[in-house]
Specification:
The chain is α/β, with parallel strands linked by helices. The protein is 31% helix and 17% strand. The chain starts with a strand and ends with a helix.
């Protein structure tokens, strides 16, 4: 059922910022979140409210998770099937449209043309609370994380994709989601400038509309997952830059022995807005991001070959040591 919330015309900013200008409006928004409702539109000082279970983002749904699947551009079976799970950044928090807040405005539509053949792309909206929850459970959506993991597993099963051919990807809020869910499911991770501490987004106003329903600092939770994961550090790529001072110091709170933290020497002239450094790092490193993604996508289909001379030396060594000769197949496994 659709409801409407009317605000004072003098306080109406015709955007989600309206709810940050008046304490009563802010409390109203928090109550919506706790009751699994959100803002889905606006007209003439009236904000449209719907239950999260009824919201239509124009996407497919699984257990109230909104997503879409992009199939490979070509049908030929060049390589084994692969999957990129794309967690979306939060780049339109001001919008009164739920899709722009939860799914963002940067779906990287050209991604498919720059990655390995036979790769499916699963894009997942952060469809929780008013504008998402960094893809993590909240008091109103206790099985959110489990449902996302099930969606990934179901997609992999449907398209015959092994877990070794699945890559979690995202930047900013999406980078947090990619890292978090990669650790939960033991999938390879490419996280670009993930938000580990979100207090910069709430110091003045709660521009993400998450209230106190989401942790401010994710480092303790992520470090616990790092202790439990079966992934080796080289399968967890986190790209940052110490020039992105709104995120980098907090990424350093993670257990760096468990991840590959890549600190890019990036020069950003005339930075006055702390959020500018974050955007610059993400926007200026697309080729590098693609290289990290493709490295993970291709590695399951690559065998490192040794020369015949090397093989003969190995067999001779085994004879010399009085051991039974081993086959080339066994040698390959040992590699």
């Amino acid at each position: 059922m659709t409801e409407y919330f009317e605000v004072d015309a003098e306080k109406d900013l015709k955007s989600m910022d309206t709810f940050l200008e008046d304490w009563k409006y802010y409390e109203f928004l928090k109550n919506l979140a706790l009751n699994n409702k959100s803002i889905v539109g606006y007209r003439d000082h009236k904000y449209t409210v719907q239950k999260n279970t009824e919201i239509d983002l124009g996407m497919e749904k699984y257990k109230n998770i909104h997503y879409n699947i992009e199939l490979p551009i070509e049908n030929e079976q060049y390589l084994s099937n692969k999957l990129i799970v794309f967690f979306m950044p939060a780049d339109r928090m001001i919008s009164t449209q739920a899709k722009l807040r939860m799914f963002g405005n940067s779906p990287w539509e050209s991604l498919a043309s720059s990655i390995a053949k036979n790769t499916y792309i699963l894009r997942i909206a952060d469809s929780n609370l008013i504008s998402g929850s960094y893809y993590q459970n909240t008091i109103n959506f206790l099985n959110y994380e489990t449902s996302i993991q099930q969606l990934i597993q179901n997609t992999a099963y449907k398209y015959n994709i092994s877990s070794g051919n699945i890559v979690m990807y995202g930047n900013s809020r999406g980078g947090t989601g990619a890292l978090y869910h990669g650790l939960l499911g033991n999938y390879k991770v490419v996280a670009i400038d993930p938000v580990i501490d979100r207090r910069a987004w709430v110091e003045v106003k709660d521009v993400q509309h998450m209230f106190d329903l989401v942790d401010y600092n994710f480092a303790p939770k992520i470090n616990r997952l790092l202790e439990e994961t079966t992934l080796s550090p080289d399968k967890i790529k986190v790209l940052c830059s110490d020039t992105a001072f709104i995120t980098y110091p907090f990424v350093k709170q993670l257990n760096l022995s468990k991840i590959n933290l890549l600190n890019l020497n990036l020069t950003i002239p005339h930075v006055v807005d702390p959020f500018t450094s974050l955007a610059a790092l993400i926007g200026k490193t697309v080729p590098f991001q693609l290289s990290l993604i493709n490295q993970f996508l291709y590695e399951e289909d690559i065998s490192i070959e040794k020369s015949l001379i090397f093989l003969m030396l190995m067999i001779g060594m085994f004879y010399y040591l009085g051991l039974r000769p081993i086959s080339r197949c066994t040698l390959k496994i040992m590699e």
